[in-house]
Specification:
118 residues; mainly alpha; 6 helices; 12% strand; globular
Length: 118
């Protein structure tokens, strides 16, 4: 294996950045920080995500090794999603970016408004 190079257009690092930079993936990681959750719990916590998009996001994150999907043989069937150790390792950087966004949202929105209005 070779080291990643995000500036190389052929490097799969860009695929990883796409996954972890996706707003829904970020919100899923934050939603699962306290442990496993069911689909409806994730949908309700995240808000604004359609079931289709959440399903696609969860499938992609599972394929990337960031979370697991466990089906329980119950009636009705119960499915839970949980971060893997790899997904857990994203919590600190995602929390740092989220904290920054929440701290600076007013400045960014003011700048955006000035750019659009000016």
């Amino acid at each position: 294996m070779m080291d990643g190079d995000a500036f190389n257009p052929e490097c799969p690092t860009r695929l990883v950045l796409d996954r972890i930079g996706d707003k829904w993936s970020v919100l899923v990681v934050l939603s699962l920080r306290d442990g496993p959750r069911r689909f409806t719990q994730l949908r309700d916590m995240i808000g604004g995500v359609t079931p289709k998009v959440l399903t696609q996001t969860l499938r992609a994150m599972a394929a990337d090794g960031l979370l697991t999907r466990q089906v329980f043989a119950e009636v009705p069937p119960r499915v839970e999603y949980e971060l893997t150790p790899l997904g857990q390792s994203l919590q600190a950087p995602i929390r740092a970016v989220t904290d920054w966004a929440e701290e600076h949202v007013n400045e960014v929105m003011a700048a955006r408004e000035a750019a659009v209005g000016g």
